[in-house]
Input
Amino acid sequence: MSVIKLDAFEVRLGGRVVLDGLNGELHGKAIGLLGPNGAGKSTLINTLLGFHIPSRGSAHVFEMDTRHERARIRQTVGYMPENDSFIGSMTGVRFVRYMAELAGLPPREALERAHEALFYVGLGEVRYRKINTYSLGMKQLIKLAQALAHGPRLLILDEPTNGLDPMARQRMIQTLQQIRKEGSIHLLISSHLLRDIDQTCDEVLILKDGRIAALCNIEEERRSHRNFIELVAVGPTKDFCERLRGLGCESASFADGRIKLVMPGGIGPQDLYVAANQTGMQIRRIHRRRDSLEDIFMRAMEADPNRRELVRL
Amino acid sequence: MSVYKHAYSAYTGRLTPLWSRVVVVVRYAVEEALSSRITIGLFTLSMLPVFVYMVGIYLANNTLARTLVLHRNPVFEIDARYFLNVLETQCWIALGIAGWIAPRLVSFDLADNALPILLSHPVSRFGYVLGKFIALFACLSPVTWLPCLLLFAYQGYSSAQPWFVTNLRIAGGLLAGSLLWIAFLSILGLALSSWVKWRVVATGAIFAVVFVPAGIGGIITGVLRTKWGFLLNVPVMMTQLWQRFLGEPEVMRADLHLPTVAILIVLTLACAICVMMLNARIRGREVVRG
Output
């Protein structure tokens, strides 16, 4: 069963098309939602939660239609919004209990789960303090605690590391990795920080101008045929690149002597040394690079946004 | 999930029915309203007139007490006029209490942008507003119809004649007049509080909406020499309505009497505007046009 299924999904807000004909199925345990500002990430999340009505097409969360089964979806989902969102006059435990009760837990169980969720995210010691006395990091964590308290099947996190210091960010990432490892919850993490997505997700959906620019499995992509090499060289790099192109390598040379290569199958590092020797160039350093999420993202951003079909990288 | 194991586990227990989520909103809203000492103080003060009116009923029905306290002076009669005074006193106190409580119910949620989180749970916007409405309605009930009906019951119990049965219309009028007023106050209070972030300003806005149009209505009535200006005057409209509910002769000149239908239409229109205000403001997400 797919976690999220989009079928010619279009959302118009204020007379403007924000999401335009999205198609695709997401199955991952942890799905990253990437895209530049204004790409439509938050709108997609809000529409999945039923805050906006799709103008065309449909979206399903665990086979439940976002248009007709909003209450059931909200029962299944835990949501951590991007901006501050809490009741500052309440204590941490009371707020999380309130949210758990709204999600359908009986009062006694809600209180129990609220305590547990607060200890789980690391706010156990401050759970009786009013939320408006919390630091920014604590406020992020209380939003995570309330999203977890009712035991959702899908946890939607909108910029979960926003405004966190490096320590708090690392702790948040570790918590998300732990949740993913536990296995009962799927994660949908929206972020503009590639590193966060890289560390927590196994599948990524990249949006650009309201359209899907890429939808791929990060692990599979890393294991793909692409083999990147970065060289630092001295000498006639232009001749060297020409020679390598003859061997079927894609290359790009830079002013400081750096050369980036994509090696096809059958070409190895020894061929580079042979080509360097023949062109009189000296190789000073050689790096073998894996395809990073940044590469995937940058290629998706360079892709033609008018192309309607799903881009598989 | 457990406190000492520090590990996550899914919830597998029973869930409450969907309709009961409104009750959760009501419960937390009432607790929020009563968490303030000022609220408790206002409720206590609102009981003072009830106590005074109760003493009045006691004196009117107890010959010995009347002799000792009033020294055989002519005594007031317990009739529709007496209960109209009770109703008017309690209803205007209810306005003060609504002005204090309504902003507490909504402004706290709006001030910290809690709506996206609240509405991401299985409770609809309608359910959320209904919950807050019921909470405010419930808070105003012990100030209005409950003490009014208790005083009516006390008078029925104390009176020697078969007073209770012959004056049942008063009880109906007290109930209808109170319910109409607190329903109006509740929706008005919530709508205005949802548009004003600061509680003090919201309280002021509630009073202003009741009394400022009354002044404008008075000017219209005076300048144009028409009774229709009173349709902007909530105190006058409500007084006329309460008099009719209780069957009490109206004190205003006959040419200034407003038709009941016109009053009800104005109140309905005001409520419709409040619903539109709530609909525009109570949202999980704001949509910026353009």
About this structure: The radius of gyration of chain A is 24 Å. Residues 270 and 276 of chain A are 10 Å apart (CA to CA). Chain A has two domains: 4-222, 228-290.
